[in-house]
Amino acid sequence: MPTPETLLKSVFGFDAFRPGQEEIVSAIEAGRNVLAIMPTGGGKSLCYQLPALAREGVTLVVSPLIALMRDQVAGLREAGVEAGALTSANTPQDNERIFEAIDRGALKLLYLAPERLASSRQLLARLPISLLAIDEAHCVSQWGHDFRPDYLRIGELRAALGNVQTAAFTATADEETRAEILRRLFDHDDAPLTDDVGGGGEDPAAPAVFLRGFDRPNLYLAFEAKASPRKQLMDFVLPRKGRSGIVYAGSRNKCEVLATALRAEGLDALPYHAGLDAETRSHTQDRFSREDGMVICATVAFGMGVDKPDIRFVAHADLPKSVESYYQEIGRAGRDGAPADTFTLYGVEDIKLRRLQIDESQAPEERKRADHQRLNALLALAEAPGCRRQTLLAYFGEARPQPCGNCDLCRKPPELFDGAVAAQKALSAIYRTGERFGVEHVVDVLLGKPNERGERLGHDRLSVFGIGKEFDRNAWRAILRQLLALGLAAVDGQTGGWRLTEDARPVLRGEKGLQLRKDALKARGAAKDDRR
Ligand code: ADP
Ligand code: ZN
């Protein structure tokens, strides 16, 4: 059977786990019963879908929300997974498809509405159910306002299925509800074992409860826009000489180049990427795990199997793939709970390259759109005007009332300025030039710098030509990047051309103001990517 990691990519198209997912999936894989408390939108479904696909038999999912079940079944079927939902809203055809899949032994996930629990008992007893997943598990709690009497039957069902391994999920974390869920779902002492079809008798393992928030308060978070990227990276890594760290880079070649550069500075650095033979890789990984003070310059290929508690820093020489990848990669630092530093470089070229990769991939349109959105979320984090940890956790659905005090933006709050006029100029320049030119051309127009193509197209005669002389080239790049991050502009993956989004209109018309970061304007030097 394929591993959850490979399924994450091959079936769902995700590059990385979200916070909590990996731990929960591992516990389920290890055979534990699980109660996981995750915020809404945190990515609960994947926690039982992955184990479902990674094992034999059928995973039964009890969920009270019919619309949600239907969405999930449709999504799974689209991804090539046989799934079905038994609900009161089913048509005979719906049911037929499910029974047919059962007969073929192809059904992987069966969603069940709680009101069908009692009537489905016979059918369920015939199925090779290997995992029971319970969504919205707080519905068993009589104290909660979401109480569903049908949920009380889950304990019985579980007993009838031979205390099959069970994973329960809820977003409600209060202690009383939690205790009640544990008692009702996992303590089967007073639940009648009516028709025990399983091995029977033995006590199920005590459930593993996942309640931790996703915050990793010991990690310092920092981003910098690329100005002179090599120097910026060295300024972060060299003072940390003698400590264990990972430098993630976007290409194999760059891993090699960076490792060589760090060795030249006297650091114990080695490259790690899929282009190296297996022996070299495992030797490198071994040394890194056992020894102190090594730096690995790696592609994302590095990290899955690394369980070193005292990694003191993680740097990204290039923008990670998504917020999920970012979180997972920085999360390798400071597992021991001691302070660790993270540092991420990002540039316009990174973003363009990523857009191109997404557009040129074989993925279906819908997934590409989702990938673009995920990239936008990462940019918004990179260019966040306030506390980075708050922005990061909010993305995963976890509210954090106070700024963290342990990120670059908390330590040095960015100066904001009224960016409405600058935004209007930049957006107008994109619009007037026909919404198909790249960032450099748009900046040429703003600065009033003639270029050959522009002259041919008459861009030097447009009213926007030269309206942005108050800022320099780097400042305009940074402004455009923030507009991209704010979702006011979008880049065509094929042509690299910038266009406006719907959200740009109120800003252009002066109906909506916006605050931009001032510090981004001060970035000096060639804002070029050093990718080779
Ligand atoms: P909930 O916890 O509310 O049930 P879902 O399981 O519906 O949340 O997931 C919320 C969203 O997050 C979905 O759009 C899902 O596709 C997305 N998602 C879940 N896991 C990941 C991941 N590892 N990487 C990227 N997106 C993810
Ligand atoms: Zn902060």
UniProtKB/TrEMBL annotation:
Residues 25-191 form the Helicase ATP-binding domain. One of its GO terms (biological process) is DNA recombination. Its cofactor is Mg(2+); Zn(2+). Keywords: ATP-binding, DNA damage, DNA recombination, DNA repair, DNA-binding, Helicase, Hydrolase, Isomerase, Metal-binding, Nucleotide-binding, Zinc. GO terms for molecular function: 3'-5' DNA helicase activity; ATP binding; DNA binding; four-way junction helicase activity; hydrolase activity; metal ion binding. One of its GO terms (cellular component) is replisome. It catalyses: Couples ATP hydrolysis with the unwinding of duplex DNA by translocating in the 3'-5' direction. Belongs to the helicase family. RecQ subfamily. This is DNA helicase RecQ. It comes from Albimonas pacifica.
